[in-house]
Amino acid sequence: MKAARIHRYGGPSVIRIDEIDTPVPADGETLVTVAATSFNPTEIAVRRGVFDVDLPHTLGWDLAGEADGVPVIGFVDSGAAAQYATAPRDRLVPAPKNIPLRQAAAIPLAGLTAWQTVAHVRRGQKVLINGAGGGIGSFAVQLAKHWGAYVIATASPRSAEAVLGYGADEVIDYTTTVPGQPVDVMIHLVGSPPPWPVPAREQVISAAAPVRADVPSTHVVMSYDRDHLSALVALVEAGVITVDVTESYPLDAMAEVHRRGEAGEFRGKVTIVPH
Ligand SMILES: NC(=O)c1ccc[n+]([C@@H]2O[C@H](COP(=O)([O-])OP(=O)(O)OC[C@H]3O[C@@H](n4cnc5c(N)ncnc54)[C@H](OP(=O)(O)O)[C@@H]3O)[C@@H](O)[C@H]2O)c1
């Protein structure tokens, strides 16, 4: 089978498409025929060697495919960027029935991170979501609206329409305008600190870069939760959450996906299809 792997750390060119043996599930695992994985920008850090991984390392965290004849989605520690992957059974849930697996691959990491970040927001609060045009942002805006918040979102012109479509009450173009209006909560989803004063009165929550050393904030690190993922699937099936996949690539283009992702050329979620 084909797998997108790195044998050493470095730029996008270290990604190789290797022909390797189909993995064999260990106890408690199952084999997934992969329909798609998704690009998550944190994997750039894996490729660069910011985190230590065993080499060679097969990329890919989000998984959508068929396991034991059942369409599933899930989250694995590595190996989803391949034609077949093994996954612990408890890392998989039934896929949404109303969208293709290739689209559902966008849900796990971004959806779970959004869920666990927005869970800190209370009904009726005014929330600034900074970085709403990204993969996590698309889920965060929809969840915050579903849970009863008033949402002000930052987005550049390329994402403004989509973010309004997710239900944001207001969109601020971060390329021209400082979000100065006071809010109860700020959710930060950008890989660099905001270059403007934080307008949150009660709480700052970051899933990305620390907001500022002098501003207390809660940092959320996604931890896999089967119940949260199943609840996300149910909201997709109920039509409450739309899964916005903006581009899709074959596995052979993984190095190009990393190059474009690193250059900031993507918005929303991008998927990779290995078959
Ligand atoms: N804590 C965790 O467990 C966890 C898990 C996954 C990811 N992360 C981190 O969370 C962050 C977001 O991840 P993601 O997957 O959503 O990223 P992403 O999809 O790559 O986000 C890209 C989006 O960021 C927006 N953006 C870029 N610069 C911005 C700025 N200065 N102000 C406002 N928006 C800006 C752009 O929006 P426009 O299109 O509007 O320009 C772009 O579409 C990353 O730093 C990632 O490493 C954390």
UniProtKB/TrEMBL annotation:
It comes from Kibdelosporangium phytohabitans. This is Enoyl reductase (ER) domain-containing protein. Keywords: Oxidoreductase. Residues 10-272 form the Enoyl reductase (ER) domain. The keyword Oxidoreductase applies. InterPro entries: ER (IPR020843), GroES-like_sf (IPR011032), NAD(P)-bd_dom_sf (IPR036291), Quin_OxRdtase/zeta-crystal_CS (IPR002364), YIM1/Zinc_Alcohol_DH_Fams (IPR050700). SMART domains: PKS_ER (SM00829). PANTHER family: ALCOHOL DEHYDROGENASE RELATED, RETICULON-4-INTERACTING PROTEIN 1, MITOCHONDRIAL. Pfam families: ADH_zinc_N_2. GO terms for molecular function: oxidoreductase activity; zinc ion binding. PROSITE patterns: QOR_ZETA_CRYSTAL (PS01162). Gene3D superfamilies: Medium-chain alcohol dehydrogenases, catalytic domain, NAD(P)-binding Rossmann-like Domain. CDD domains: MDR_like_2. Transmembrane segments: none annotated.
